[in-house]
Prior knowledge:
Blueprint: H1 3-19, E1 23-26, E2 30-33, E3 36-44, E4 51-55, E5 58-59, E6 65-69, E7 72-80, E8 84-91, E9 97-106, E10 110-117, E11 129-135, E12 145-152, E13 158-164, E14 168-171, H2 174-177, E15 186-193, E16 198-200, E17 204-206, E18 218-224, E19 227-233, E20 241-249, E21 258-264, E22 270-275, E23 282-291, E24 303-306, E25 319-322, E26 331-336, E27 348-356, E28 367-370, E29 375-380, E30 385-393, E31 396-405, E32 416-423, E33 426-432, E34 440-446, E35 452-457, E36 461-464, E37 472-481, E38 484-485, E39 489-490, E40 494-495, E41 504-511, E42 516-522, E43 532-541, E44 547-552, E45 557-560, E46 568-577, E47 580-583, E48 587-590, H3 596-629, H4 648-653, H5 676-683, H6 686-694, H7 697-702, H8 706-716, H9 719-728, H10 737-746, H11 774-785
Parallel strand pairs: 2-9
Antiparallel strand pairs: 1-3, 3-7, 4-5, 4-8, 6-7, 8-9, 10-11, 11-14, 12-13, 12-15, 15-16, 15-17, 18-19, 19-22, 20-21, 20-23, 23-24, 25-26, 26-29, 27-28, 27-30, 30-31, 32-33, 33-36, 34-35, 34-37, 37-38, 37-39, 37-40, 41-42, 42-45, 43-44, 43-46, 46-47, 46-48
The chain binds 2-acetamido-2-deoxy-beta-D-glucopyranose (NAG) (8 copies).
One 2-acetamido-2-deoxy-beta-D-glucopyranose binds next to loops.
Amino acid sequence: MFCLPLLLIVISSTSEVQSKNTCDVIPKDLYIQVGSNIDIWCDSLCVHGKVFWTLDNKVLPQSWSTPINSSHTAVSLRNFMRHKAALQCHSADTKEPLGGTTIKTYAKPTNVGCILHYKNDSWGGVPQLFTCSWKHQSHVSEQINYTVLVSSQLHRSQFEICSSQEKECTTKDVHLSGNITLVGNYTVTVRAKTNHWEVYSHPYEFQPYRILQISPPKLNLTALSGHILAEWTTSATSKKHHCQIKYNKVGDKEASEKVLNKTLAARAKGRISFDKVESCTHYKVSVRCALDKAPWSEWRREETLLTQLHRSDVKLHLWRKVTEPDQSGARKVYAMWTEIPSTCQGTFIYSLNLTSTKHHGNATRPGRTLCGNSTCKIEVNEDAHRLKLKVHHNETLLAEDSVYVPAVGESLPEVANVQTWSLGGVIHISWDAPAQPASGYMIDWTHDGHQYYWKESSSTNTSLFGLLNKEPYNITVTPLFGDKTGLSTQALQICSTVAGPGNVSNINVEASQKSALVSWTMKPQEVCSGVAIHYVVFYGTEQGPQLNVTVDGTKQSIHLKELTPDTQYSTYVRAVALTGSSQSNVRHFNTKKFDLMIAIPLMVSAGVIIVILLFVGPCAALRCKKILKKQVPNPGLSSVALWPSASHQKGMLLFRPFSYPSESLCEPVYMEESQPFTTLDTQLDPTAVLKEHYIDPAVITQSNKRPHDLEDTSNQSPSTESAVLLSEGGSPLSPYRSQSSVESPSQSDDKECKCLLPISHQESSTPLSVYVTVELFEQYQSMLEK
Ligand SMILES: *[C@@H]1O[C@H](CO)[C@@H](O)[C@H](O)[C@H]1NC(C)=O
Ligand SMILES: *[C@@H]1O[C@H](CO)[C@@H](O)[C@H](O)[C@H]1NC(C)=O
Ligand SMILES: *[C@@H]1O[C@H](CO)[C@@H](O)[C@H](O)[C@H]1NC(C)=O
Ligand SMILES: *[C@@H]1O[C@H](CO)[C@@H](O)[C@H](O)[C@H]1NC(C)=O
Ligand SMILES: *[C@@H]1O[C@H](CO)[C@@H](O)[C@H](O)[C@H]1NC(C)=O
Ligand SMILES: *[C@@H]1O[C@H](CO)[C@@H](O)[C@H](O)[C@H]1NC(C)=O
Ligand SMILES: *[C@@H]1O[C@H](CO)[C@@H](O)[C@H](O)[C@H]1NC(C)=O
Ligand SMILES: *[C@@H]1O[C@H](CO)[C@@H](O)[C@H](O)[C@H]1NC(C)=O
């Protein structure tokens, strides 16, 4: 218990001893007004020699520091602008810092301004509110308390009337306090205060009427034919004041807003009328006023009003399309006009009157035609007509217009060389004027043949706006000559914008071992689709790199090569047009393990050779000599005229078998030196052989009946081929095939090789005429029977 005070004494005494030799910078933690000057001292008793200063670690010029005596040095900072800085004093010998301080700055509030104004719901009288605002740059996070101080010549003393932590402050019921009235001159000062500093703004002087903001005026609008009348009243009619009235179409951009200025003398009435307003259109109007040299009032809340229909605004703008005449010369006229906007109140009755100009108005057919609000379809004959449109409102004629319908075949001037081009969704048209000077041109256009748009142009070019995207437009130009028209000229159909290419669809892949044939089709293209200039086929395995190959726009297939066998690939196709590109879905496929296209023929060939060697080989060897010796008559050297004396009727029968060539079991007939074995080979469908014979060659060799089958299969399909074979020899449809047809069955005894060696018996049998007759056949049969 006794130790603690003792300890404190000891500590304080030692620190006292040390302080004599300490170094330091004074004063500490400075707050100064921005732009002011400051002197700071360094106490360098602890070291010998000179000192130098650094500000935010930058050495200050030696000239800024002034030695006072052996142990003190001062530095003088002029016009200090930094928000915050660290100043240090260093020993010149050791460069060691001897001490330091921080300097922070604050600024005065500026741009002080005040207004006297009224509470929202009040109107005239003395203003209840006094609002001052100012600017203040501060880089400190600590709270700043602002106070508004007012003084007047009347009161002399300054008193606080408002305080705030924002840069704005409103005094309510200032009229009750009596501190500010509407007479005299006043001065306002704003004080900013924190725990560390306090600063005052420059004084702001005002005369109350100069800062009086009146309440928004009261506005009264009237829609009259062709214009709007605006009337308003303010709370300050007893003094000269200025007003602004702004108006704009509802939904229009703010930039198109119009503002009218009006200065009113004391007791003058606020009244203004603005014309050039569109008929049957909603306008919004607002007004504000200000006393002379005083701030503007708030804008009056916008009021909306619908303008009345102005007669001069009714432009029917009548036009017509005439179809080609039918056989009787009747034509359909599609009349169209600009409807009176539906925003116009009241009922408008349109009536269309058709007059044949041939009869000079005497005969009017079909008389008045009541139509829709903006279109009408009428039938007219081949004569020239005039269409007259009238619109009535409340039984009074509002407007009328007429248009000429030329007679069929009427010779009238027309424009030439109509050219169209589209750019950014806008179609531009130009044409050559006809020889006869035209008063104007009517351009009409449609994308569907039902909805027509039309406009008049005085020059020989125009642009069509507001078109639908990617639609083909039919555009017609007709010259106008006063109230008559020329002939219409239709431009080539043109697209408002060109779309990307159609969609790539139906990706088909035929994959083999190392390659794949990828083909695709394009979805039926829209009229305004872009044409694919090329295709890019992307393909790759899941792991492998994504490859691509570009295909000319005229082709729609590609052979992908160098693929890995037995692997899954994915592929898709991108169609590229000038206007964009489209991409197909991804298609997966697998490459084959083996290439059947190569494997099958190899296996088949090998199989066939084995069969032949095992089965036919010995037989062939046995018969070899006979084959070489035998003589087959050459049908090419024969002639039908050389028939022997046999009866004509029998000779006719000769032809019968020709119509049934395939009836013969041993159809393929080989001429003289032809090699039956090789021919047979080439004629066989390899897969058929594989099925029928290759599977089990052992069976074939064991069974005597198998060769029949062999013949059958070779016979079935290539009956035409064999005919071709024969006809290749020169003579078309050789009747001589029947020789073997007849002979072959006779060889049915020869079970081993009957068909492959079809004419082997000829030698041993009678050297008969090559031409087989029924007689001969009978002879032969009987011979065999013997
Ligand atoms: C040096 O000047 C300072 C300030 O004027 C003073 O406090 C101090 O005692 C002086 N020291 C000497 C040794 O004169
Ligand atoms: C107020 O100041 C204006 C000039 O600023 C001066 O003309 C006017 O006489 C002053 N009014 C009074 C009441 O002092
Ligand atoms: C600022 O104003 C508040 C509330 O009026 C007060 O509590 C605070 O002490 C003031 N701060 C300073 C630095 O005057
Ligand atoms: C109306 O007055 C404002 C300023 O008071 C001015 O900028 C504007 O041009 C004036 N408008 C017309 C149409 O005179
Ligand atoms: C014509 O316009 C009136 C309103 O002005 C409307 O009631 C009527 O349905 C319209 N008739 C047709 C055929 O569009
Ligand atoms: C546009 O004109 C072409 C050529 O005369 C015609 O075949 C086609 O039907 C027209 N299309 C429309 C929508 O009128
Ligand atoms: C018509 O052509 C002229 C010059 O060729 C051009 O200046 C003008 O803008 C064009 N008018 C329209 C409506 O395209
Ligand atoms: C096609 O592949 C090549 C590399 O083989 C690559 O540089 C190119 O960008 C690919 N093309 C496309 C359209 O991806």
